């Protein structure tokens, strides 16, 4: 395996660009690395939201209306669990449950998360490689004015309501990056690393927090290109804008650039934010603008092409 | 709680009589004790086949055609799990899964199996008390000419094909009987113990193997009445007849009586086997015959009445 491109991604927003990239690049050329800081154990099942969103999106079976889960999903189990008085705050569809049952069972029997992801991806028909950032458990903890909350508590149960003061990644210090990622970062074939338009704190930072990732990114010759998840002062989806505000940051592609400036070489921002290009370039980061709001598959492919081009592909 | 009747039961056959008894007795008068020797962990879930069959049957939501699981069940999760290459030899319906998820989660959080069964029963609308024979894990192991097999391996995966040489109950020696059962056996209000028409080796024997159960049954004044699961040389359902044959026993209510004779005082056999009444009585066991094949609810209630009457109710 000799990947030319590595895409670091969180869930929905990142997965859209990952899908665009998958349409533009051969399976052997793209490695998609998923944030697993949101992973958690629920009802005895290992749930990996970003990995699954990436798998389902690249397999073409994700529920695009809902933004998560599977298309044409049914909810018989969750409804029955609700009647029994069980926990239903995290909605698991009947078919999605099969993914979690399969993965949890394989992990219990000693498989690594990479192996299981590969097995699931193959069966689902995903041709490109998706790997978790690490085989180890790393748990994103959101530090709020109401104390520390696990990511899912903050994100799903509390609907991002508490004010954020910071984020930490439990277990990151002892984690190793996924072997496939390590090899890809060492490979001379590498032509670029793409940071997908995902939440910088919740989706990108956990990957960067794995020992050796920042160091490797600082060493490689290939450019590191981010795509801003902030468009016109707002996040396309999720709590990114709210979190940036609460952390005293500029809610703009400039704020994103400032946050990522020690990691990235280049950034793609939305056309709507073109006026910020000079200020971003003043930070020493190459910048360009393109349509970054991805509704159709064409949007995703166009942005993927723009990013690849801007990376010198 | 002061129960007048205790019913010891396995799955389907036993549950039919338990339903009849539940229609004839007040909720405060009947304690149904389920065999849990068939329980096992599968896909990380605690599955309790006999407890569930009893709960679903008494709740009126069991699938009577299929003989197990829930009426109107759907199979979206199992089908998806099959596509993923997961284990589907033990069929779990979408709604049934909710029962296992709920129970497994509650057990992990420290609840006892009795507590969880009480919670599930309440929500499902079961008014009578159902308890497991023990809170501890006791696993029925079938000793066959192909070696030892776990119960589910023998019963579901191998479809009872291997020749049986014996049965043992792993963990029974250190198990305690369920506290509700212990108190009920000590209570002077007790008017009878009914051994439902379940497999003597696989469903009744595990309950009797819990330390103290045989001793308590030997001590109580109230009669112990069995209902033969063998009718006309055949079992209504399951491998009872095959097992009896393989163990060199007489496949008849007489064989059942011989097996249970140190435990029971009386037995109800089918009308079709009435000719065996004298031989059974010769063993020192009181015997009567009644229609024991339970198709309709009326059949179940009639047999329940016959058993209660024969016990001196």
TrEMBL record, chains A, B:
Signal peptide positions (record): none
GO MF entries: LPPG:FO 2-phospho-L-lactate transferase activity; magnesium ion binding
Pfam families: CofD
Enzyme Commission number(s) from the entry: 2.7.8.28
Gene3D superfamilies, per database record: CofD-like domain, CofD-like domains
InterPro entries: CofD, CofD-like_dom_sf, FbiA/CofD
Keywords: Magnesium, Transferase
Xref: NCBIfam families: F420_cofD
Protein name: 2-phospho-L-lactate transferase
Organism name: Noviherbaspirillum sedimenti
Organism taxonomic ancestry: Bacteria, Pseudomonadati, Pseudomonadota, Betaproteobacteria, Burkholderiales
